[in-house]
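Re: the multi-chain job from yesterday

Posting the exact lines I submitted so nobody has to dig through the queue logs.
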Amino acid sequence: MTPALSPLSGTTGLMRTDPVTFEIIRNGLYAVCEEMKTVLMRTSFSPLLSLSADLSCAILDPRGDVAAQGNDIPVHLGAMPFTGRAVLAAFPLDTWRAGDGVLLNDPYLGGTHLPDMSLLMPVFVDDAVVAFSATRVHWPDVGGIAAGSSSISDEILKEGLRIPPVKIIEAGRLRQDMMDLILANVRVPSDRFGDFRAQQAANLRGVRRLQELGARYGRAALETVLRESQDYSHLQVQHRLAALPDCDVSASEPLDGDGFTTDPASLMIAVRIRKRGTTFDVDFAGTAPAARGPVNAPFPVTASAVYYTLIGLAGGGIPPNSGAYAAATVHAPEGCLVRARYPSPVVAANTETSNRIVDILLRALGQAYPERVPAGSYGSACVYTLGGPDAARGRPFVHYETIGGGMGGRSGGDGQSGMRVHMGNTMNLPVEAMEAQMPLRFHAYELVAESGGAGRWRGGAGVRKVVEVLGAGVQASVLGERTSTAAAGIDGGAPGGRASFAIRDGAGVARTLESKSGPHRLAPGDRLEMQTAGGGGWGRRDPAADQKGHAS
Amino acid sequence: MDGQGQQTRGAGQGRIGIGIDVGGTFTDAIVIDMDSGACLDAFKVPSSPEDPAIAVLRAVERIAERHALAGVTVCHGTTVGTNALIERKGAKTALVTTRGFRDVLELRRQARPELYTFDVRISAPLIAAADRFEVTERMAPDGTVVTPLEDVAPLARRLAAAGYEAVAVCFLNSYAAPAHEQDAAHILRAHLPDAFLSVSSDVAPEIREFERTSTAAVNAYIGPPVRDYVERLAAGLAARGAAGLRIVKSSGGLTAPANAARYPAHLVESGPAAGLMASARFGAAIGQPNVIAFDMGGTTAKAGVVIGGEPRLVSEFYADCLVEGRQVGGFPILSPVIDVVEIGAGGGSIAWIDPAGVIKVGPRSAGATPGPACYGLGGTLPTVTDAHAVIGTLRAAPLARAGITLRPDLARAAIESHIAGPLGWDVARAAHAILRIATANMADMVRLATVRRGLDPRDFVMVPSGGAGPLHAVAIAREVGMDRIVVPALPGMFSALGALLAPVRHDAGRSVLRPLAEMDRAALDAVFAPLAEKIDDLLSAESLDGRSLTRARFADVRFRGQLFELKLPLGPADAPVPDASAIEAAFRAAYLKEYGFDLPDAVPELVTVRLVAQADGMAGARDPFHPAARSVAAAPPDQGTLLAADGTQQSVPFLDAAATPPGFRFAGPAVVVVQGATVWIDGPARAETGPDGSLHIILEGGQ
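And the result, structure tokens for all chains:
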């Protein structure tokens, strides 16, 4: 049995709360995040929120660091400390009143990509701000050049409405003028307002629960646990890192394309990882300059991918928060593809680039710790959007969905097939629910046979999804990955099958699409055919097992 | 065991009812006089895991030694289906789907249950890819045939030749347009007359293809074992002279063997549902319509909610989603099911210290083997039970009856070497810390069952049951702000009792998905009509024994675009259905109450209609919670000692509820034995014994 480290001595010197009260309040913080999520899903209007759960909840301390977070979307959550700091820079602590709410979506001022709307509300206990309740919610549309706000453009201004931190709720009163301005710039505004109300209700629930914890245990204990919860996770990560041998490893892979070019050199992401004792340094030097299309990652998205990878490497069971994140240091040249500057477009980084960054980090780490990391995965969220008039129902529609794919095999287990991996976890939208609400008909939702890379532990299979548009005037866009670079295997495992995208017209003639593509104008009867990549295999396949497999 | 003891055939000879619950270790049986409500007998026999029916029939034989079985119905909660599911011992099962969609079962909702780990675990599909078959067909949700159904006979012959014991059928949009599914089922039945057929539009006619397919798949997979068990048990009971058998469903309702065997997926929460029914009836008997039922055994703890005298039900749950303390997704089942929250916290949960020096309890459990250290069966790791053994709240006498010699010294050694020693604490502090953590975990569970569902635990009375429930109930109640706890008599037999007290019940529902405003009275009547037919069909297999039947309509309504509905009662089915504007007004009022705001511009949508038929179990009879007053002379309580957290010995009264007269009052702290279970009142409280041997506790500050 591992001897216990002295309680939290590694970071704070002293644990001021007794360990039992600490554990009770700390669990309480995570439970509050889960409750906020329940409120949001129950009251939101977008299927993307209520059915897909493209949303995240967290509790921030007064410095803007994450003390606790829900079991939500890693790319949302890893970027949350940046959100907290950006909001506090715009609105210092002494400017807050009870009932205030600050909204933002600008990736260059604390956001991730424009569709992600972040709302923070202060928690007052004994007339002082002790915490913030925070939510990040993906709106299916925030304006821009294409329905779904997830298409190809060459500057962020074309991606939709940009909102820097604004105090949209003042002491409990919604700034209706500001809300009207926002709604005037998005598609299907009434649903978006419903989503905003749901978000507000979730933040308020978080505020109320934290105030109850403060009343129960006292402000001092609550404030202490908000900090020590981070120290606790920090220590856990360090403890696990200390048990691993040191390493210097590197890897690089190009993205598939950005909607304008598929030239590998101009889409290259390079990474060097240096692990010494309990430190974990990641440097993206050598990465290509920012691309013309929307694959560029704002720094918080890149950092999120590193944080996620580190916690996964450390092993399960570590409560994620800023303390865990702080165990990594991340460097990237200003203005490169993984540290983009205004006005680079960024919408595909959350869903595509972030997952590719994880695979590149894992490819590097696989050289040092093959037993601890999976092979490459489908490297994508695979976002497709459809939108336009719905003649039958007399209203416009927007459909935004992600498609799962293959996860890489890992030591001791085959990769999962057809699931979301790494930085996202949004659910699919039930075909029946969509056909009942939108002018769409689905023709296939199935696993792609033989698309998982062979190996001692096989990669997971990719997914094939085919959707037909039934009405006229519908726009379609696709943001995918791995049409050209397959998911790599580890230790002799085979790469996974590649992704492909096409539009097939009513006569059966197919037109192949690039991995990032759109907006396309579809005719009734046109089908969007999408296939995501399989995961790579782990380890060389044992020939004896092969023979056994053939014999049986 | 008293064998052929006294053959007393006393007051209970009129009309008796038998309730039986099968647990992992013991099978519990209870016999009630249906006229007086008196409990005539309650006992346990060892379970027979290889075939649970053996122990059930053994218990019935023992009852027959004292009571005539003629005309007696046995009510029974069963875990046969649950176990077949969890142990993957179901039938050889095929799935037939719409072409292009055979992998829906495996693709699930594409989300993984845990994040920040590369070791992703997701329940493998119950029906593997090689056993999933596609047919060409397609229906639009409005019933338009997009592609006609192909000839299914060749596939049916293939399945028959391959020896499938069960077949699930789920076609896209069959929740609204079931014709193709029904046609295919007809042909499959002709070719596979002995196979268990599970048709999604029959089992769960609700929108969402993954959840409906999963329900049909579970139903097929556990169908043959459940059908065989129910038939075997019914035959065994008939051979012993009993009149009949009723099975508890996940909804807490009873059903005839034929219906139970048709919808095994509706039985997966049978045991816990029975326990919650007992809590509901007990609450009603003591004038408490709002109850939190807290059940704790060796490996898990559960919290369920009773509101207004009825167990809270939900329409969907995930079976087998917690494996080895990890969330793995499980199998969604669309059926009315009691809303119970379960966590891996029981008497056997192991306490440990994580690398940062924080005490954790569970989810690992010492289980039955090796068990807690203090049982002396080889366990060396400290458990929640060991903490009680050290503190002194675990009594030797009840354990001795189960053949276990309590060894507090081994408990002390386990806590010393794994918790107290590494932290530099003394054992008393460590033992109390283990219980505080366990209590906090279970308090979070109670909050999950209440606060997360918009309920305030302070509006409820806690009713603990199970072996360890009464030990922890007071501390948990205090933690969540409740001030009333009532420990029922026979807390360890609650599931057997609940089976007996449950009503016969059937639910039918279907998705509608139309704006309320579009529905005139005729349209509303039309959507309810097929539900009435289905209920009639189910009831034709039931003998109601003179129970009076009520039928009630319900509607699930939401704002269009939202996912979650509110369930609205629409009154009895023999009255005219309310018109759409009345339903909308009721919905808006309920929404405002639930979420604190209304959305005047949003469009209410009728999502699902439901019809519930119910025939009350104890109608006209008394429940077992009001037996004739006992006359017991008040014996002075013993004084015992408990080890306090600061290491001092604390003198505390120890009482036996059975040895105190009804209405006997005393103050906490105290330790009280209630029919084999131990109640720990761990602080200031007022307590009083009830007329039926129950124990009523009001915490300081309560009313």
